Amino acid sequence: MIQLYNVTKKYGGESAAVKDMTLQIGKGEFVYITGASGAGKTTLLRMLYAAERPTKGQILVDRKNISRIRSRQIPFLRRKVGVVFQDFKLLQSRTVFENVAFALEAQGKKRYEVSKKVYQALKEVGLEHRLQRKPLELSGGEQQRIAIARALVVDPLILLADEPSGNLDQEVTFEIMALFQQANARGTTVLLATHDHSLNQRFPRRVLTLDQGKLIGDQRPLQG
Amino acid sequence: MISGHYRVELSICGCLRLKLLETKLVELEAPAVLDKIRYFIMRALRNMRQWPLLCAASILTMAVALATVATFFLVVVNTEQLALRWTKEIQVIAYLQKAPDQQSLAGLTKKLKDIPEVETVQYVSQADAMKRFKKHLGEDASLLEGVNADLLPASFELGLQAQYRNQAGIASVIEQLENYLDVDDLRYGQQWLEKFNKFAQSLRFIGILLGGFLLFAALFIVSNTIKLTLYARRDELEIMALVGATMRFIQIPFMLEGAIQGVLGGVLSLAFLAISFVFILSPSLNSFWLTPTDFNLQFLSMNQQIIMVFSGVVLGVLGSLSSLRRFVRF
Asked: Which residue, of A131, B32, B37, B274, has the greatest Cβ tally within 10 A?
C-alpha cells in the first residue's frame, strides 16, 4: 500500500528531515512510527498526503507514484488518505455535523448520502448525540473523536495520525486507539506517529523507529 | 420515478426522503449539478453569516473605494459638461464704427449669414445696446438718465456653428467680416479661448492620471481587505485542502461570496455617491461663479450605475481569487 525508496527530504539548506528512507507497508497493516521530536515522523506523514514532496527518492501510495504528483491530482490522493492531528484541526465556527460532513461535501457527495454517512460515522465514534454542538463545547477527547470521524467518513484506504493522543489523558487515548483498531479491522491501513511507548505495550503492532531522519528500527510483534 | 403513494419524511439527519408506502424506500435525488449549485450558494451565504464582521469590512471597503472613484468621475464629467456649455457662448461681436441705415441692414445681415461658419446673426442697435445696459445696471439704471442713446456702438453678434467654435473658425470669420464691415472693434475672447483649451486638456490629463491612481489604490485596498478576511479563515482553507477538496471546489464559494459582497458594496457605494452628490458635489459646483444658472449637474446614468455595481462584482470576485491563491497551495 505504501512504498518508499531512498526518500530524502530537505528543507532549504538545513540537514535532511528524512534521510534515505526505504520501507514498505502492506495493505491493512497497523504501524507505529516512533522517535524523539525532530526524528522526521511528521515529515514522513506529510509526504504521504502530499503536503511535502520528497527532495530525492520515490514514494508509492496505492501503486501510484506521488513523489512528483501534479497539484491537480493531490485532492484525489487525499480522498484515499484520512489524516488526524494532535490539534484536531476542526472548524470551530461549524457544528460537529458540519465538520464531518465537510469531508464528504468536498468530494462532491450528494446530500442524502452525506447525512447518512455522517450520522453513521459519528455513531461509530459515539458522538451521534452531539450533532449540533460546536467543537469548543466538547472535551478534547470528543474533539479528537470528531476528527477521526471526519477522517473515516470517506472510507479511506489509509489513515495517518500524527500524535493523535498528544493532548489527551490515558483513558481517552485508549478509547481513541480502539477507534483506530476498528478502522484497521475493516481493512484501513493505519500509520500512527507517536512517542508514547505505552501504546505499543498495550496494543502491540509493527513499530518503525526513526532517529534524525533515519529509519533505525523495524520491529514486528511476536506472533501468538 | 416510481408511481404510487409517497410520503415525504424528514430523517434523523435532516435528509429529505420520499417513502414509498408499500415497501421500498426511494430517495429523492436532485440532478447533481443543481445540487452542487445549491451547495455553493448555501455555503457562500453561510460563510457570510458566520463571519459577519469580516463580511461587513469587505463590503464597506468596496463601497468606499467605488464611491471615491465614482465621485471623482462625476467631478470630471460635470466640469467637462460645464466647459462644453461655455463653448456654446463663444461668439464674435463686431462693434461698428457707424450704425448702418435701415436699407443696408437687411442686406448686410444676409451677407453675414452666408459666411459658412456663422450660425446666427443678431444685430444690436445703439438703442438696444442702451436697453441692455440699463437692464444690466438694474436699480442703478437711473445713472444713465440724461445720457444720449447713441453713446454705445451698434454691433453684430455672430454665433458660430458648433464645429467652428475654436480658434481657427473664429480667425476665418474675422477675416471675412473685415470684407463686409467697417469694424471699430472685435471681441471674441481669444485669450480666454486659448486658456480654456489648455484648461480642458489638463483637466482630462489630470482626470485620467488621478482616476487611474484612485482605481489602483481602490484595487489595492480591496484586495488587501479580502486577503485579511481570508487570513482569518486560513484554517478552513487548509482543512478543505486536507480532506481532498479540489481547488475549484474551494474557490467557487469564495468567488460567490466575493460577488455577493461586490453587489452589496456596489449598491452601498451608489448610496454614498448620491449622498455626496446632493450634499457636497452639487452645492460646490453650483456655487462656482462661472456655472450658468440653468446648468443641470449630471449624476451617473442608469448604465453607469449598473457598471458600478458590476465593477463591485468584478472587484469582489477577482479580489477573492487572487488572495485565495496565497492561502491554498497544493
From this structure: A131
